[in-house]
Each structure stands twice: as structure tokens, then as C-alpha cells.
Amino acid sequence: MTSAVYSDNALACLRGIGKTFPGARAPALRDIDLDIDPGDFLCLLGPSGCGKSTLLRLLAGLTPPDAGALRWGGDGQRPEIGFVFQDATLMPWASVADNVYLPFQLKDVPRPQVAGAIDEALALVGLRDAADAYPRQLSGGMRMRVSIARALVTRPRLLLMDEPFAALDEITRNRLNQDLAALWRQLGCTVVFVTHSVIESVQLASRIVVMAARPGRIVGELRGLADRRQTTLPGLTAAAAAQSQRVSALLDQAMGVAA
User: What is the pTM for the complete model shown?
Assistant: First the structure.
């Protein structure tokens, strides 16, 4: 049964959310109760098929729930949202700056009016000098930086990220995690980040929500080590190792929970 209790302080409240796709053997999501607070860096962690990406798409308004309710805080209107997909999804025929302009272009905002915002977004991800380059000229990490700049160019209150660094090598992934944490501290936006990595969740997140599959559901929540007062990601300290063990234990439990 969907709870009627909502948090007045949350950016988003999900109550009793369910989603089943046609032909599926089990719901993609069932009975999801979750508050997303302003300024959170919330990691969704769980096995494939547990509904992490579906939950992101629901928050983005790309797919509707079949059950339950999603209520936005403040005036009740969906906030400005940025979405970073698993693939950089850049237009190969367009320059870096043109790719970043896309969210404004879709709203028919004249290019000269937002030239400063495009330049600022590229500066945030360290690509101001690559504005005239094309995706084929960039490394995988640089292409993902362009995707992040495109998501940030409208200065969203909520940034949704669906395993954006999963396909990158470990060195590039670590560098981008550092940069993402710095952007979170600098911009003050709320981030919901999907990952399969326990270490990534512990280092990046202020909150870690663990999900189980078939049906997709939340089985527990732990604190991550991220803090806006930090200047860098938490290192592989004893505290990080201990919290990783706790998260791993909860994830093992999630993978063994009977449907």
C-alpha cells in the first residue's frame, strides 16, 4: 500500500512506485519508497535487472510508473534535470560546443543568448580548448566529459547518471570520479548515480541505496563517505574498506533475497 506520508524537505518523494514492462516475468520496480534530499549524492547499487536504470528514467519523466506516486518538493514542479547515459551519445557530425548547445537548441533558445553558458559548461569539465573539435577526435573520457557538460549546461537541480564511466579504463574512471565529486561540491546540485561498483559507491556517495532484482526493490540503505567539505575523494582508507565490507554484505543479501 502506498504511504501517504511525504517529506516536506525532500527534492523528490517516491511512494509505492511500481513498473512492469509488457511481457516481463517480474516487475522492473515494486513498492519503491525513497526520498531524494537536496544536495544528496545518492548511488543506486545492485545487480543487473534490479531496476536502477528504470528508476532513473522514471525520475527523468521518460517512463511513467504503473503504481504509486512521485511528488516533487517546493512548488511541486519537476526541477530542471540533466541526464548522462551509459554512452556519451554525442552527435558525430557536430562539434563539441554544438553538442553542448543541444539542450538549449531543443528549447529553441538562440545560440548567441547561451554562448556564455556553453563556454562555462566546457570550462567546468576542462574542455574549453576543445570546443571546435569533433567527437571522433576525442578519447572516450573526453567524450564523456562532453556528455557531462551537456547535462550541466542548463544548471540542473537534479543530475541523473546511468553508469557513465563503466566502459572506461580504470585510470580514466578514477580521474572522472574525482572531477565529478569536485563538480558536486562546486555546483551544489543533487546527483543520482547508478553503479555496479561497491568502491565507487562508497567513495562518491553521501547515501547508498541497494536494490535487488525480480522484482526490482530497495533492500537497504547505507551512508557513503562523500562530504561536500572534502577537497578530494575519500582514499582507500580503513574507514573506506570497512564501509565497503558493509555495502558488499548488503549487496550479497540483495542478490540472495527470494522474489
Answer: 0.93
